[in-house]
């Protein structure tokens, strides 16, 4: 079934939108706002295309994973003021948008689910997200930069040198970047990190991991690779083939993972991005 536009706003008693389960397409988009009791988006499980996606001022909204079939948004993604939202799981299929706004969240810590984004045409805006500390996973490794960029008022945000941001800063001066944590306090600070980042990552315990991001084979040096495990951001353990000091991650779905290596003295955890 198709629906031109879904607009829900100011419904103080709404808890359930599951009756929308058969809708696959919304030409003009979805806008859900000011619905204080809505906790998830069950009912949008079949949605594959929407002109835009707006989720605003839904203080109980904690789960948007029901949007996992959504792979086409033509215009704007605007997610803001959802006090209970901690991640963007459900948006893994999004590949291009006209503009992306993520703002005013109290508990949002993870936006790595946007790893498939290849193109943001007009605007990327990350504003006033109180505990967000990293943009890791935002955009694919070859993502095209937007026309305008704003990263501000995120007091814990210290990792901003992801490819989509680096690409923008290398070609444009139209960036509004301020009042973030050290590492993301200015365009020049981020650009300096973009210029010095290599494909080999060395953590403080001496473990070398390369290339990271990876499309397949992951090489590890500095620590004997005997007891190890790979988990996704949902906590699921994934099995991958090992050959000596190499892990074959080819079969892993694209996304952010945590590699844990037990050295016998300590457990080292390292983020891995599979492209």
Provide a short characterization of the protein structure:
With about 280 residues, the chain is mostly beta strands. Helices cover about 5% and strands about 35% of the residues.
Structure, explained:
By secondary structure, this protein is mainly β. Helices cover 6% and strands 36% of the residues. The chain has two helices and 19 strands. Strands 1, 2, 3, 4, 5, 6, 7, 8, 9 and 10 form a ten-stranded parallel sheet that branches. Strand 12 and strand 13 (217-221) form a beta hairpin. It is globular, with a radius of gyration of 19 Å. Residues 198-204 have low confidence and may be disordered.
Helix and strand succession? EEEEEEEEEHEHEEEEEEEEE
Mean of all residue-level pLDDT scores: 88
Helical amount: under 10%
Query: What gross morphology would you assign?
Result: globular
CA distance, first residue to last residue: 33 Å
- Rg calculated over all Cα atoms: 19 Å
What is the structural class? mainly beta
Number of helices: 2
What's the total number of strands? Answer: 19
Q: Flag low-confidence runs.
A: 198-204
| Beta strand % | 35-45%
Largest sheet: 10 strands, parallel
